[in-house]
Amino acid sequence: MDMERPILACYELRKVFNGQVPTEALRGITLQFRRGEFASIVGPSGSGKSTLLYLLSGLEKPTSGRVEFDGVDLTTLNERALAEFRNRRMGFVFQFHFLLPEFTATENVAMPLLIAGVSRKEAMGKAAELLKRFGLGHRLRHYPSQLSGGEQQRVAIARALVNDPDILFCDEPTGMLDSKNAQALYELLREVNAERGQTILVVTHEREFAQRTDRIIQLQDGQVIADERLR
Fold first, then answer.
1. Rounded to two decimals, what is the model's pTM?
2. What is the pLDDT of residue 206?
3. Does the 8-229 domain belong in CATH 3.40.640.10?
4. Is pLDDT above 90 for 143?
5. Distance of alpha carbon 42 from the chain centroid
């Protein structure tokens, strides 16, 4: 493994949304992220934060430019190959948890493993172990509707990490949480970053949250106007 090569990089990334009036959401962004980095992307509403995250993770295609993940150009992969790549190498946490209501916490967390072809016994065992690690051992058989907002977010993070991804993408993960749960979420992500070595990239409007990450990238009008390494 080449430790010097960035785990993730984008070059001259542009995204135009075609409506009645075309909107240029990203205007030629070039960034690199080191393996194990904990970075945040901030900026006002409409600055292109979430669009950048979706392009970096291959959830959307750029209008031009390229995205490289550990040397693989994501823009060259077809949808099936991209979906398989994301399931193996990436984890996602969103503001809305997108937990499946008809499945228990353990089943929700096990889902990426089951999709990857892991046996149900192994998948459920690993999911339960991770939930216990996150302080949810007493909630294994509970359904999302029986969990608090903070508990649902921890289940969502466990699901994102169950495949041991190289990178965790988080889009406004504290948006639906109160200050106490937002603090707990930060501590959990920091712990994951330190103990498991996962690269973490967080889009957030919470400046206080961003100040505690290793790097703050500030967007405005689809461009990077500041890129500050804090540690």
1. 0.89
2. 87
3. no
4. yes
5. 15
